[in-house]
Amino acid sequence: MTGESTGQQRRAVVVGAGIAGLTAAIALRQRGWQVEVLERAETVGPAGSGLSLWPNGLRGLDALGIGMAVRDRATAATEAGMRDPSGRWLARTDIAGVRDRYGDLVMIHRTELFDILCGALGEGRLRLASAVHEVEITERGIRIRHSRGTSDADLLLGADGINSTVRSLHWPDALPPAYAGYTAWRSIVTPPAPVHSGGETVGRGERFGIGPLGDGRVYYYGSASLPAGASSANGELAELRRRFGDWHEPIPALLDATDPATLLRHDIYELPPLDTYVRGPIALLGDAAHAMTPNLGQGANLAVEDAITAAALLDRYRDIPSALTEYDRVRRTRVEPLQRLSRRMGAALQMSWAPAALLRDAIMRLTPVGPALRGLAPVVTWEPPD
């Protein structure tokens, strides 16, 4: 059934075992749903990167009862902001002010977060190596054909990333992901000396970000404005050294500590806005719905928000299409302005023209801490639905 279900446990299939998919599966299971998660990969939990969890994302995890477990395995942010390549501060983030005004801000290794989410989901609900091939809506519900068989459901949540199979099957007119104009390198290293200060350093068409993980390891990323598909003739680590090797410490030390085998490089893509995240009893979550550039550090947080909101509205509106219609309205209203803001931030931070970059840096130096702190409100003040 795709409407109100009576006398039977409602069934949900979640496609994709990323942050959005696992969080949604946990939230639905806690509300009495029968849940199955289909993941095309043979393993869960991408290695090699860290992520920031802001107060909004942590509130969503608190609603599931796993927020404290995440905090216990994460690192509380201490010092952050923007610097120039010499190390001079352009703007400092008032971390204490963020915490006092909005709530906790932490950094966590992705594998640590996935371990917590998989533990909360429980055994027997995740089916790996299950690539979806076909999704059919019938009068009796939804039939999903995948590489390990067939699954039936009342609800289908597509949380399978920027190149979503669910979106390609039921949003045939959706525009493909668009290249944002820059590529990114990422790694996690253990430098010889502790690194306590995080943040981002901005140059001309280049950036370098640092996120201490609290156990001696440091997550870092570098980005550069380059054509899509470009490669480095002398290897990616050599390319990073060429671009960032003379920037301020600890950037050279982080590069020296890098194992080339652990260095990841990906071009940055974003998804053009969809006219809807919902098709009947099918909804898209996370990057499948609204993949954006990473400039706000909100990808994981918005994925958690999507999952918590969808589950709450499916409780509030027992009719599934009605619940998802409200989900679509609420989430697009929330997410679309942040997509635009992240895109504008990326354009400013990746500026290559020297006069424009100098003006950007001057504006950052002259912006008072108070207005910058208040400016976070639209991003981080989200609260889980009742």
Structure overview:
The chain has a domain at 11-83 and 108-177 and 271-351: FAD/NAD(P)-binding domain (3-Layer(bba) Sandwich), CATH 3.50.50. It has helices at 19-30, 55-63, 67-73, 95-101, 110-121, 165-170, 236-244, 251-256, 287-290, 299-316, 320-349, 354-366, 369-374, 377-380, and strands spanning 11-15, 34-38, 50-53, 75-76, 80-83, 89-93, 106-109, 126-127, 132-138, 141-146, 149-153, 155-158, 178-189, 199-202, 206-212, 218-225, 264-270, 278-279, 282-284. It is globular. It has 14 helices and 19 strands. The protein has 386 residues and is of the alpha/beta class. The model is unreliable at 1-6 (pLDDT under 50). The strands form four sheets. It has a seven-stranded mixed sheet with strand order 6-5-14-15-16-13-17. Strands 8-2-1-12-19-18 form a six-stranded mixed sheet. It has a three-stranded antiparallel sheet with strand order 3-7-4. Helices cover 37% and strands 25% of the residues.
Ordered list of secondary-structure elements with their pairings:
Elements: E1 11-15, H1 19-30, E2 34-38, E3 50-53, H2 55-63, H3 67-73, E4 75-76, E5 80-83, E6 89-93, H4 95-101, E7 106-109, H5 110-121, E8 126-127, E9 132-138, E10 141-146, E11 149-153, E12 155-158, H6 165-170, E13 178-189, E14 199-202, E15 206-212, E16 218-225, H7 236-244, H8 251-256, E17 264-270, E18 278-279, E19 282-284, H9 287-290, H10 299-316, H11 320-349, H12 354-366, H13 369-374, H14 377-380
Parallel strand pairs: 1-2, 1-12, 2-8, 5-14, 12-19
Antiparallel strand pairs: 3-7, 4-7, 5-6, 9-10, 10-11, 13-16, 13-17, 14-15, 15-16, 18-19
